[in-house]
Every structure is written in structure tokens, then in C-alpha cells.
Amino acid sequence: MKTTIISISPEINPLGAGNITTYLRHYGYNVSLLYLIAAHKIPLEESVEDNIISFLEETKPDVLGFSVMTIFYNSIKKLSDKIRKKIPAIKIIWGGIHPTIRPDECLEHCDFVCRGEGEEPLLDLISRLDKGEEYHDIPNLSLRKNGDIHHNEIRPLCQDLDQRPFPVFDWENTYIIHTKSVIPLKKDIFNRYRAKKGTIYGVMPSRGCPFSCSFCCNSTYKKLYRGKGKMLRYRPVENVVAELEYVIREFPAVRGINFEDDALASAPEKYLEGFCKLYKERIDLPFQIRILPLANVKEKKIKLLKSAGLVGAAMGLQGSDKMNKEVYKRPTTQKTFIDLANMLHRNKIIGKYDLIIDNPYSDEYDEIEAIQTFMKIPKPYNLRVFSLAFFPLTELSAQALKDGIFDKTTSGYEAVYGNEKHLYPTLAWIAEMTPFTPRFLIAFFLSLRKSPTGKGTLWLYFRSIYKVQRKLINFILERPKYILFLHSLLTKGKGNQCAQLN
């Protein structure tokens, strides 16, 4: 059996589709991976679709898999329908978050849907198709049988992640859309489509999340896997470090690591001790993490990570205490967030924080409380301000649909974080300015936010001063080598890490 997996994304990311292809190759199957780097040009151009079909006609896969996020659903269904019409012999399977939560909708455009984690279900399907065996009972699959849709039982979660090989690039069977054409992915163009031009590499040391935020797919996943095993699982330390050693050998441009899961800092202390020791001994590159604002993120853990090379940490406040508790169902408090931000600052770690500045359930006092929280934390830090987007079948979307707040036919499918108009544009401006503006000025703008004089002064400041500040500081904070330069100044000069990123 020949299989092709298509991943649509604005940049090459080995997670997800890369895990699946490596897993199938591990069991001896012929698998190609096509990175459809076209998310910034949605909907897909006709010429791109035609070139993909020509590639499939030439390579003749028996099975075609799509990794589908909600914001790419409309483009992938159009491409999938076109492929089914032109090459009806191909069996098409969709996986990822959107098919997991809306399998019936997706089965209008494919033969199979994989719900939840996909390694074992896809291996079972390909194996049975290869042997000509019955496949309708494979756990995690949704499919049609005698015209009716069947959703098979969800299998238990794999608890031993050592059984999952880390993503490995097969350069002979990996392709990319480049200048609208499908070409083999070679190392000379690899870095063009990687984050930060290939200097940062993303790795997931854990799967799952301890949070069940109402706006996030994790709340849906937890319901799907209820009674199927522990949701938050950590890869063995040796497994993570072995992947990073492979990354360093394979990609000489890598100068830093981005741990993309949310739970590394929440791991048990014993796990972190082993991780930091082995990482420092065998990798010794600067890295950044995401932190969940939980009370179990103790300073000892932060110091351990710092000693191994931690230089930056992202963390979400998301909203006021009322918004987090009553709307987002997120166990985050202003106090815990401020305590952790202070902890990062004490340990000379640059913070990157997230805030949902508005949603239909918030009022201006919720927005002001969130802004005041950021006025209380120490600089320097970076702040990403988003508008809320509703995605299908999350707890918050179900409530908002019931309340008549959004249109179920478009929300989530076309809206992405940050492209909606703010409910309180003046407060959105003030929130954006908090990392780079003195506290007394933020307080001044808040106090005069409703007066013509205050709005005019804010507009002038925002346009003439803040935008210049933001471009300069974001240029620094978004580039690892400059983060490390700033980090070296804060720590009185350890130039070795900075040199690694030059």
C-alpha cells in the first residue's frame, strides 16, 4: 500500500502529520508527506489544486490522508471533492481536530474519519486494506456502511509514549508546495518554510492538557476520551533528548528549541530533574516553553529549567478573574498569574503573555481588570492580544449558539484569532501598549478613555510613538538571538548562549 499524507499549514511543522508518517514508516509502509504551505492564500488557487492532483496521478497512492483544522475545512473539502472526482480509486481519510468533533460533516467529503489520536487507527486501516481484510470495526474510525454512518468506539489512550517514534524526515518522500508547484522538499529550501528561518525547532514533550478551557478543543477531547486513560502524558526524558539530538544533527541551522506543549513546567519535580540534567549534558541549547498559570509551578521548577537553558516562557492570562471562572472555565487567577510573572522576572526569563481582550460576554470592567493585571507585572515582556473566535462544539460555542451570539455557519470556519473587530477598541489599544508604555501613562489613558481629549491624546500616542516602539521591541522579542542578547544583559553577560544564535 502507498499512502500520502497532506498537511496544510503556513509553515513546516513536523508535529501531527510528521508523527503519523514516521509511525507508519516505522512499521514498513510506503508513506509520502506533502506540506501544503498555502494557508496564507486560502482559498487555494485552482492551479495549486490542479498541481496537487497531477502529483497524485503521478505517484498513485492507494490512501490519501488529510490533517484538518477548522479554519482550513472549506479549502480541504473543495480539494478533497476534486480529488475524488478525478481519482476515484483513492481512499481518503481525514484526521485532526475538526474531523474529530464533526465527523458526520466531514464524511460528506471523504471515505473515513479518524477521531482522536491517529497513529494506531491509520496503521490498522492501511494494514487491513493491504491484506484485503474487513475494516469497518476499527476503533476511532467513522465511516459509512450500507449507506449509514457508523462511529466506532474510541480506543484507550496510549500511556507509554516511548511507543511513539518521534518525527523523522524522509527526504526521498517528503514534498512541498513551492511557487504553486509540488516539488521534493530539500534542505536548501527547508528553512524558508520553518519558523524563524529554521533557527527554532518545535518539540512536544507531552500530550494532553490539564485544563479544560471552554473555548478550547481540549474540553471536547476530554469528553471523547473519558474513561480511556490519563489524558496528560509525558514522553520519557531519553525519548525527548534523542529527538533533539537527531534535530541538531539533521538541521545545523537550529539554535534554540521551542517546547510547544503547555505542561512541561507542570511536570513532576522528579521528571524535571531528570530532563534538565540530560538536556544540559547532551543538548545545551537555549529554549522556550509555555506555562500554565497553576499553583504547582513552583520556583524550584523554574530554577531547574533555567539551569538547563530556559530563556523565554509564554503564559496566558486570557481574561479577568470573572471571565476565567465563569466564561472560560479556566482555573487562572490574577494573583497566580502575577506571582508567576514575578517568578519569571526574578529568574531573568523573558515573558510572552496572551490576552483575549474582548468577547461577547465581557464588559469594559473585565477588560480594565485584565489591563491592570499587566500593569502590575515587571517589564520587559511581550503581549499578544487576541479577539475570541468560536470554534465548533467547544463548550463556549455551544453556549454562545444557544444565546444567539454567533452564526454557526461561519464562526470558526472563517474567523481566526485576531481578525474580528474589538468590542472596545480604545481598551484594545491600551492593552496592546502595556508592555512598552509607562504605568502612569496607561493609568492616564484609562481614566480619560471616554473623553474626546483622552481619546485624541491616545490616538496620537498610539500612532506616533507606540507603533514605533512596538516595531522595534517586537523585532527584538520575536527573534531568538536578540532575546538571548537581552537575556545576557539581564544576567550580566554570559555570551556563550548569544553566540549560539549569531
Low-confidence residue ranges: 490-502
What percentage of the residues does DSSP assign to strands (E)? 15-25%
**End-to-end gap:** 45 Å
Number of strands: 17
CATH architecture of the largest domain: Alpha-Beta Horseshoe
What form results from the Cα inertia axes?
globular
Number of helices: 20
Structural class: alpha/beta
Q: Give a quick account of the main beta sheet: strands, pairing sense, barrel closure.
A: 9 strands, mixed
CATH homology group of the largest domain: tm_1862 like domain
Can you give the helix content as a percent range? 40-55%
CATH domain fold name of the largest domain: pyruvate-formate lyase- activating enzyme
- In spatial order, strands of the major sheet run 7-6-5-4-3-1-2-8-9
For the CA atoms, what is the radius of gyration? 24 Å
The average pLDDT score comes to: 88
How would you portray this structure in words?
The chain has helices at residues 17-26, 46-59, 73-86, 97-101, 103-106, 119-131, 187-190, 217-224, 237-250, 269-282, 299-308, 321-327, 334-346, 364-375, 395-402, 425-433, 439-447, 452-477, 480-490, 495-500, and strands spanning 2-8, 30-36, 63-67, 91-95, 112-114, 141-145, 148-151, 174-178, 181-184, 200-203, 206-207, 233-234, 256-259, 287-291, 310-318, 350-358, 381-387. By secondary structure, the chain is of the alpha/beta class. It folds into 2 domains: 2-163, Rossmann fold, CATH 3.40.50.280; 197-489, pyruvate-formate lyase- activating enzyme (Alpha-Beta Horseshoe), CATH 3.80.30.20. The strands form 3 sheets. Strands 7-6-5-4-3-1-2-8-9 form a 9-stranded mixed beta sheet, sandwiched between helices. The longest helix is centred in the last third of the chain and has 26 residues, at 452-477.
